[in-house]
Amino acid sequence: MSQKILVIADHHDGQLLDATGRAVTCAADIGGDIDVLVLAHDGQAIADEAAKLAGIANVHLVNNAANEHAVAAILAPQIVAFAQNGGYSHVLGPNTTFGKDLMPRVAALADVAMVTDIMAVHGPYEFDRPIYAGNAITTVQAPDAQMLVASVRCASYGAAEKTGSAAVAAATVEAELPTHTRFVGLEQAKSDRPDLQTAPKVISGGRGVGSEENFRIVYDFADKIGAAVGASRAAVDAGYVPNDMQVGQTGKIISPELYMCFGISGAIQHLAGIKDAGTIVAINKDPEAPIFELADIGLVGDLFEIIPALDAAVS
Amino acid sequence: MKILVSVKRAIDYNVRIQVAPDGSGVVKNGVKHSMNPFDEIAVEQAIRWKEDGTATEVVAVAIGDDAVAEQLRTAVAFGCDRAIHVKTDDEVQPLTAARVFKALAERESPDMFLMGKQAIDDDANQTGQMTAAKLNWPQATFASKIELADGKAEVTREIDTGLETLSVDLPAVVTVDLRLNEPRYLKLPNIMKAKKKPIEALAFDELDVAAATPIKTVTTKAPPKRAGGIMVETVDELVAKLKEKSLI
Hints:
The complex is a heterodimer.
Chain A (H helix, E strand, L loop, with lengths): L3 E5 L2 E2 L2 E2 L1 H13 L2 E8 L3 H8 L6 E6 L8 H14 L4 E5 L2 H13 L4 E5 L1 E4 L2 E6 L4 E6 L6 E5 L14 E4 L10 E8 L12 E5 L9 H11 L2 E4 L1 H5 L20 E5 L5 H4 L7 E6 L6 H4 L2 E4 L2 H12 L1
Parallel strand pairs in A: 1-4, 1-6, 4-5, 5-12, 6-11, 7-11, 14-15, 14-16, 16-17, 17-18
Antiparallel strand pairs in A: 2-3, 8-9, 9-10
Helix pairs in contact in A: 3-4, 5-9
Chain B lengths: L1 E5 L2 E3 L21 E3 L1 H15 L5 E8 L4 H10 L3 E6 L6 H15 L3 E5 L10 H9 L3 E11 L2 E8 L2 E8 L2 E5 L11 H7 L4 E5 L12 E6 L8 E3 L2 H10 L4
Parallel strand pairs in B: 1-4, 1-6, 4-5, 5-11, 6-10, 7-10
Antiparallel strand pairs in B: 2-3, 7-8, 8-9
């Protein structure tokens, strides 16, 4: 039986996020017709961008003032109504905080189980997913007689190419939207650096960096080589950097080509976020630090001497 | 106000888990278990509200086999007034847990259901959202700050783009993130006293709940090992290796 897959677009500030394209790549592995659903306030530009994703059949755009902010309680009933009317076999979202918040609500409204963090596809209803902070991989089989709701582990998939030209169609959904949840505000950490979740190079700092001021040298070096900046939980908890920079089991899971970390010991929870990186480079003054067990290249030494030397060497 | 707080028993977060050689799962026998760390944060929050007079009653709830009673005792030692143990020897997946929690919420009528944002064993991050959906209550996930006033909660959420604030009507389901608080260390007298507090046992059929069609586990394996790394002695050597791979 051919599958009919609906991918929920993740967007922010009028821009389609890369995570959507990654979910489309996973959908292509499942196989079948792939549609993208954009729920927005004024989403034409987002839908047009989504239409370029290779491999998709249609983009459905639901414009509604209620969708101005991505509130799960408001989006979920619309998605369930749209997916059930359209006869979709699969509804996929990315495992961004948007998808993590939303997809379980969609699944429960449809009264179906959900698969979190698909990292590989074995069949339309059989997938690999990580458990125990990525220390085990489990192959799961979802019931095939009901709609499957799932989130896609973005770090396991590249974004679909933007060579397509799918049709964009305005859609309406009949769903009762709750009024019990209101968006109040968003405090955004401003950054001109590449996005942590999609950057090909990431430089991270941990407790060893020592202070918010000291993080300056990490930022400067990252800027020099065009890298995004991440951090361990210890650095976030110590107040050196904002929490949206946290990499790990409960922060962001990333898969850059190059991951360089300074002053990070390598707790299980941090390693869960970087296991898929192409090359892991660790700089730490403790030769026994567990990060060296995972690193492709390790250097024992003081980061305050090594970063300036690295800086000079790449100049 | 009255608060329900859910507690899950999971392998302790410091344990290096072992995958069973036959692919049947991870080794759990003889391995240290404790309260899921996110649930500890949820319990701590509820107890802080009890201490400052915001909460009048805090009830800890858990689903699982007899061993789960240990984590409910821990919750009571934190200061929960009582505990409810929904007993089953079967594995409980999030949709089933949500059905149970919905039934408990309807029975107990709390103003808030606090949960951890995810359990560190299955890493599913579903149960809070599913429970909210089943109850048609608002949800505020990944909370790092919660302010209560006038029958509403203003919740600051940790999301990819920064910190989002939502206002939700109560009752609501709120799932907590790591930075909400620092759970206390339990004192021995409280642990002793907790042994005297009631834990009510309930069965699925007493709540009129049936397990959902489960997702089956076919096999569990260890993640692929990364190829062995090398250590370099100098920055120049490091730079040379990175240039070799065209990474800088």
